[in-house]
Amino acid sequence: MEEKSRSVSVAAWKFWPNRLKDSFTFGFNEDNTKVVHAACIVCKKHCDRIQRGYGGKVVNDVTTYGENGTIWILRYNLERHLNSEGHLKCVEIENGKLPTQTSIARLWGCQKQRAENAIKPLVRTALYVSRKELPFNAFADLLQLCADNGGKITTSYGNREGCKAFIHILAEEILSSIRNEVHKKVNFFSWMVDGSTVVKRKLSYESELIYIRIAHECKPAVHEIDLISMKEYVRVDANNLYHATLRSLLSFLIPDITTNCETPIENLVELIKPFSSKIIGAGADGAAVNFGRKTGLLKKWEDVCPGRLIKVHCYSHRIELASKDALTPHFKQVIDFLIDIYYHFRNSPKEWAAVCNAAEKLQTAVVSVPKSQGTRFVAHTLNALHALKTNWIVYIHHFTNQREAESDMKAEKFLVNLHSFKFYILCRQYEDIVNWVSATSIAIQSDHDGSSIIDAIKQIKRLKMKLTSMELRGGPAEREALDAYDRGDLNCTPLPFRFTRHEDGGQTKAIRITCKRRETPTARLLEHEESVVFHSAEETIIQRSQTTRSQCIRNLRDCLDERFTEIEEQENILSKLSWLNPEILMSDGGINASVPEYGNQDLSQVFEYFKVPLHAAGCEKGACLKEWDDLKYDVQGNEVYKDLSTTDFWHKLHQRKKEAYKNLLIVVELVLCLPFSNAVVERGFSCLRRILTDWRSHLGHNMIKDLLLIATRKEQFEDGAIRENLVNKASARFMGSDGTSERGLVKRRINSILGGLETAKPSLVQPQLINIDDSSSEED
């Protein structure tokens, strides 16, 4: 019965009078069998004007059916709205008969505007407190500073509770703007989820962070929408995560809905079904609770979006997992050494102090070796290798002194590797490979700058090509060491070794490799010898390094192929997206664009896979293919689109020729919404760790959500115009100018603010006027 009471069949709707059909815009479900949404055209147009001049029932009539529309599609309700006072006033405005405000209404509007202007400095200060992650007690101090500088600040809401109220209003306004964008400006979105165990230790319960990815005007954007508390659930399993993510997205899409942990999943699925045509992808890390084949979280989400949901395991995470699988067997000696030396100095500050003293005596620099473990280990490993190269001679000096003074076996273990040129070559090989893997991983993780899944796939293919080139020639760090060795360079400055050749009859019999001598007035480093005798050409260090490098890179390529099978398999839809890449489309002067059949088959398969959401967005297949053919002709030799990234290319096309390619651009926006990295979610947890300081140890979950919502947009708020626009909207929301607050509450707030403004004390610091009289100045 509930379904019947809020929707009507299309068959019945067709017999409604034209007066109703012409006065409202209607929304339909996926299969166009039911009318599920209605909005009054005139009331939606003049909603703001009514809210500024009226209140009570008049505003309610207009906002209910005009601002957001209604899902309660009853003919009686719609007819009653057309005869309501609010709708009739909107009709008068539409016909040019502006209703005059009463004197009381004018006075009310003036008082509200005055109070709104008085509250803006407080809202602006609350935003500053949340952006700079300051304690709430600093709010009153900052307001007092403003007053001391001559500002007239109301005494109302000038405490920590007022600061919390303003932060909540700011967060509500941010979330409302994202919600409006999803409902009104974009056709599709995908969502990403991740949990944190570190936050669990601080909050005493596990939290899940939800982000959405949208594309407006072919420009991707990622927004945080919710921090889910799993405190209500008995345990964190796939079923409870499914329930929690459904609730989270529902509360975002329909803010007035109320659910709890006891709400049946079937009811939640039924409520979110009208929005299922917008959801096209989901991203998460590779945990079994997310990607279980039968009962994983994303497998359960296929009930909401059957047959078309793109499930993406974070690409940067997969690259690092593939690197770990492939590199660990070949470079275990280097990996173990980096871990051992990190814990050696971390557990003994005295040892590190001795290393710093040795560096000072040797007149060189020393850098601490970071931890090279964990999920995102690649970038840390690269930093550790750079630090090891910088500290090589200092470590030899330190461990040699320690061995001679204390007969330390651990020092001897470190020296065995540090004296070995083979180990040095192994470190440089590892550095070259990790350098490229790290660059690729970081490029994929930078998904906040408008990158897309097309760019991510391009980065992975580029990494494979670079590894193939490196297999033949070696990397720059390895070549530097091997070239010096091959020349028999006695003083190769960048390396901590020297080489001396021993020849017999024109053939090299042996090379003496010694650590460089570093002598200063206060320290002397003894040389350590390592002789290498050439018994055959195959046993040289150069050839052994080539063999190790070739085996390692082949294993890494195989692991990458295994982890990223979907971008190569012809059956997978992600392998059909290359036509979106402008580099391929315009390569060699647009040679691909000149081929009539180029991209047609891939575009057709993408359209068939996403047929339901594309049809719901008003996209037609035939028109889309025709526009694609026109685009290929348009870009040939066109310098306007040259040397642009994927998102910049399609964004410029949207700006220049939106109407000419409207169907094709809908498909492009869908693809740009697909997730490919969870790094932005992990950055959200980094913000959360900064928020949960000792100054904020007793925050409620809702306040943590509000602070996180603002903290994740810190870079946007560096723009003064964006910041001031948010302050204005939040101030209007606080004073009820958006129609979201009750009139009685707004009246109490106005009286409190204006009363505080009248009782505001003058500044304690009086400005001093200094008169400068040139004629009375004394001369030296």
Protein architecture, described:
The protein is α+β, with helices and mostly antiparallel strands and 780 residues long. The protein has 36 helices and 13 strands. The protein has a five-stranded mixed beta sheet, sandwiched between helices. Strand 5 and strand 6 (219-229) form a beta hairpin. The radius of gyration is 33 Å and the shape is globular. The chain starts with a helix and ends in a 22-residue tail after the last helix.
How many distinct beta strands? 13
- What would you call the quaternary organization? single chain
The chain-level structural class is alpha+beta
Indicate the overall shape.
globular
Give the proportion of residues in helices: 55-70%
Pick out the low-confidence regions. Answer: 1-5, 516-539, 763-780
Report the C-alpha radius of gyration, rounded: 33 Å
Report strand %. 5-15%
Total DSSP helices: 36
- What can be said about the biggest beta sheet? 5 strands, mixed
Roughly how many Å apart are the termini? Answer: 97 Å
Mean pLDDT: 80
The spatial strand order of the largest sheet comes to: 6-5-4-7-8
How does the SSE layout of this entry go?
Layout: H1 2-6, E1 8-9, H2 10-13, H3 18-23, E2 24-28, E3 34-40, H4 41-45, H5 47-53, H6 57-67, H7 75-82, H8 85-94, H9 103-131, H10 138-148, H11 160-184, E4 189-196, H12 197-203, E5 207-216, E6 219-229, H13 238-253, H14 265-272, E7 279-284, H15 288-291, H16 297-300, E8 310-313, H17 315-327, H18 332-346, H19 349-361, H20 377-406, H21 409-418, H22 421-445, H23 453-473, H24 476-487, E9 497-504, E10 507-515, E11 519-520, E12 523-524, E13 529-533, H25 541-563, H26 582-585, H27 587-590, H28 600-609, H29 611-616, H30 621-635, H31 646-657, H32 662-672, H33 679-691, H34 701-711, H35 720-734, H36 743-758
Parallel strand pairs: 4-7, 7-8
Antiparallel strand pairs: 1-3, 2-3, 4-5, 5-6, 9-10, 10-13, 11-12
Helix pairs in contact: 6-8, 9-10, 9-11, 9-35, 9-36, 11-34, 11-35, 13-14, 17-22, 17-25, 19-20, 20-21, 20-22, 22-23, 22-24, 22-25, 23-25, 28-30, 30-32, 31-32, 33-34
